[in-house]
Amino acid sequence: MKCSEFLQELTNYLDGVIDDRTKAELEDHLSWCHNCFVVCDTTKKTIEIYRDSQLYELPDDLRTRLRTAIVAKCHARKKSGPQEA
Amino acid sequence: MSAIQNKVDEPVSDELTLVQAAKSGDVSAFEELVRRYDRNVFRIAQHITQNREDAEDVVQDAFLKAYSNLAQFQGQSKFYTWLVRIAVNEALMKLRRRRPERTVSLDEEVKTEEDSVPREVADWSPNPEQQYSQAELREILTKTIQGLPPGFRTVFVLRDVEGLSTEETADALDLSIPAVKSRLLRARLQLRERLSRYFQRRDGGNGAQKHESGDGIQ
User: pTM of the entire structure?
Assistant: First the structure.
C-alpha cells in the first residue's frame, strides 16, 4: 500500500468503518511508515482536540433569553395559525 | 489506534413523542426540543457565520422555522438532523448577506486537492494542548478552523464536533456520501497541518520531515 492510498482510507480508518482486510493492510502500512503514523496520530488528536474544545458554548443568560424569545414567538404563531417562518 | 466514537445519540422514540406533542400545539414540548438542541444549533451557527450576533439570529430563526413547518417533518430522519438542515441553511444565508462579494456554497469545489497530501509531517508534543492556556488554545482553534472554506468547515463541525454520522451529515447538507467523506478528509488533514504549527514537537528530536514524492511518499 502506498501513502496516497493510505490517506484515501484515513477517514474510514479513524471512523472505524472499514473491513478487516483493509484495516489489516492499513495497520501493516502504519507499522513501517513513520510519516503516515504521525499523520494518522495527529489527525486523530486534531479531531479529539476540537471535539473537547467547547468552542462557542452558549452562555446561560443568552440561552435563557433566546429560549424565552423563541417560546413567546411560538405562542404568538399558535394564536395566529400556521404560517411560513 | 482505536476508532473515534460519535458523541450525540439522543433517544429517538422520546424525541418523536415530543415532536408529535409539539405538532398538536404543545409549545412546552417544543420548548423541550429547544432546550435539547439550542447549544448545538448555536455552535453550528457560530462556526458557519463566524459572528456571534448572526449565530443568535440563526438560533431563533431556525427554531421558529422548524416550529412553523413541523407538519412537514415526516420522521424519516431524526428531528435533530432535520433541524440542523434548517439551521445550516439559515447560517449560510447570513454568511452570504455578510459577504455578498463571495459566493458561499456547500457545493463549491475549492482548489485544495494538493492540500490533501500533507507537506510537512511534524510529530506533535505529547498533550500539545497543555502548552497553552485555555484562552490561547481557544484562539488557536478558532483561528485555525475559520481558515477553512465554509463547505469543509461545516462538514467537519457536523461530523467531528457535533457527532452526526456520515449519512446524517449528507442528509443535513444535501450532499452525497462520497462528497461528505471527501470534504471531511480534506478538512481533517488541513486542520491537522495548520495545528502542527502550534503543536509540533520542539525538542529537536524526530521533528519535521518532508512528506513528498521521492521522500516520504511511496
Answer: 0.84
Given this structure, which CATH class describes domain B114-206? Answer: mainly alpha
Hey, of B4, B39, B210, which one would you mutate to test binding to chain A, going by the most A CBs within 10 A of its CB? B4
Q: Which residue has the cell 455552535?
A: B43
The answer, for A8 touching chain B at a CB cutoff of 8 Å, is: yes
Domain A3-80 is of which CATH architecture? Orthogonal Bundle (1.10)
User: What residue ranges do the domains of chain A occupy?
Assistant: 3-80
| pLDDT score, position B119 | 67
Contact A15 B199 (CB under 8 A): no
- Assigned CATH topology for domain B12-98: Rna Polymerase Sigma Factor; Chain: A (1.10.1740)
Residue B3 confidence (pLDDT): 57
Residue among A53, A57, A85 minimizing CB distance to B141: A53
From CA B49, how far away is CA B17, in angstroms rounded?
32
